[in-house]
Amino acid sequence: MKTTMRQKESNLMYRKDSSNKKCTTFHGPKCQGANARLTHGLNPMATSKTPSGLKKVRSTYFRALLLTVLSCLLLAPSATAATDPDKPTLEITFDDTAIRELIALAKAKDSSEASVDNWLNLPANKYILSVGEAEQNLTRDQFRANAIAEINGTATPQTQSPTDIGCLWMSSTQDYTAMLNGFEDSAEARIRRIASRLAKFSPPGTHIKETVYLHLGGDWDAVNDNGDIYVNIRFWHDLHRPSWDGINMIVAHESMHTVQNMAYGNPRDNSSATPAFVTAMSKIQREGTARYVENDTDPEAYATSSYGFYERAITSETYRSFPTDIKKLETVYAACFPKFDVDKYTEAYVDGVDTGGPFYDVGYGMARAIDERLGRKRLIDTIIHGPKDFFAEYAGLCATDSSLPKLPADVLKAVADMPVKLDTSSPAGQSTSPVTKGEKNH
Question: Which of 83, 105, 152, 234 could bridge 53 with an S-S bond, Cβ 3.0-4.6 Å?
C-alpha cells in the first residue's frame, strides 16, 4: 500500500486488503473580534481521578476547538440562524486528545493498565481499532503494546513502521506538541477558510456539525466516517516535511462528503449490475467534486516537500490524464453489463478509486467543466440530484463543446437507463459486500 497517495473518501465495500456520533462540547465565552465563536472545553471523558500523566496538557487537560461559521458571509450566528435557515452552516470541533494524552503518559512514564485503557477508549483510538479489527490487521492487545512501548521510550520506526495502522512511535514528542500548539493557535482562521469554501458548494439549508479528530495510527491521511473526520497527523510530520500545509484542503474535502451525504446520499451496493453501476458513478462524482472543492481552499503556495505540496502536485498532474482516463469507465460498464461479474467489477472499482486513482481526475474534470461552463448553481444541483444528473449534464456539455473528452457511448447509455437513486429500503439497495469502517484516504 502506498501511504503517500490518498483515496479521498474511503471505500466501505472494496479494499484490497480485504449512526452518526454525538460530540459533547462545553461552551466558553465568545471569541473577541469575530462573528463566530471559538470555545474551549474539558474532555467529556475526563474524571476527577485522572491518571498522573494526564493531569494537565498545556493549560488544560484537553482543548476542544469549536468555531461556528454561518455561510461564506460569516454573519453573526444569532441573526443569521434566526432570519435565514437556508444559509449553509458549518460547525467544527477539533479534538487532539489522542495525541496529547499519549504524550502526557510518556512524559509521566505512566503505562498502568487503567491509564492505557482510558487512552485506548478515546474516540479516535476506538475508531482505529474498529478498522484494524474489521480488516484483521490490528488487535487491541497489539495497539496497547505499541502504546506502552511509546510511553516507555522503547518504540522505534523499526519496531513500529510509520506506515502501519497501529504505529504510535513519535520521532519527537516535543515536535508533535509544538505542531499541536501551532495548530490550536491557527484553528479559528483555518475553520473560517474551510467554512467559506464549503459554503460556496453547499445546497441551501445545509447545516453540518462535525468533529475532526487528530490522531496517531491508521493507514489513511483522513477519513470521513458518518460525519466525523479522523486525521492522521503522521502525514503532516514524519512522512513529509513537518508542516500543516494541506490540512485545510483535506478537511474541506472530507467535509464535502458530509454535504453530499446530506444532499443525495452515499449509495454502496454491488449486489447486482445496476446498483453496482450507480455506486461506481456516484463514487466518481463524489470524489471528483470533493477534489474540485478542496483545490482552491488555500490559494497560496505550500512549502516544498510538505504533504499539501505533494497532494496539490498529484491533483495537477492527474488532471492532465482526464482525457484518457475517462475511457477507463468502460471497465466498470463491461463488468456490469450485459452480465454482472462482481470480481471484475471490484477490480475495476478499486483500480479506479484506490490511492486516489484515475476516477478521481475523471470526476474532477467533469465537475470543473460543469462549474466553469454552466455555473456554480448548476454544479450544486448535481450534488443534490446525484450521478445521473451529473453525468447527463456533462454529456450535454460535450455535445456543444468539442474540446471536452467524451464519455464512452456504452457508459452514456447506461447512465441514461439507470435510476436517479437506489431504493435503500429493499435488500437490493443494501450493501452486500464485506464492509469496513469509514470512507478513507490513503
Answer: 105
What residues have CB less than 8 Å from 317, skipping those under 6 apart? none
Question: What pLDDT shows up at residue 53?
Answer: 36
- 39-48 long-range contacts, CB within 8 A, separation 24+: 39/64, 39/65, 39/66, 40/64, 40/65, 41/66, 43/97, 45/118, 45/121, 45/122
Residues 6+ apart with CB under 8 A from 9: 224, 253, 254, 257, 283, 286, 287, 290, 439, 440, 441
Q: Which pLDDT belongs to residue 423?
A: 81
119 in any annotated domain: yes
Its pTM stands at 0.82
Task: Decide if 174 contacts 182 (C-beta within 8 A).
Answer: no
Q: How many domains does the chain contain in total?
A: 2
Return d(Cα 254, Cα 243) in angstroms, integer.
19
The reply to whether 258 and 290 lie within a common domain is: no
Say what the pLDDT of residue 84 is. Answer: 84
- pLDDT digit string (tens) for 206-244? 999 999 999 999 999 999 999 999 999 999 998 899 999
Q: pLDDT band for 122, please (50, 70, 90 cuts).
A: very high
Residues 252 and 294 in one domain: no
Give the three cell numbers for residue 431.
Answer: 450493501
Q: Which three cell numbers stand for residue 339?
A: 452480465
Contact 90, 201 (CB under 8 A): no
- Higher local confidence (pLDDT), 77 or 288: 288
| pLDDT score recorded for residue 35 | 24
Cα-Cα-Cα-Cα dihedral sign, residues 345, 347, 352, 354? positive
- The parent domain of residue 393 ranges over 273-433
DSSP-derived secondary structure letter, 425? T
Residues 28, 40 contacting (CB under 8 angstroms): yes
> Is residue 256 scored above 50 in pLDDT?
yes
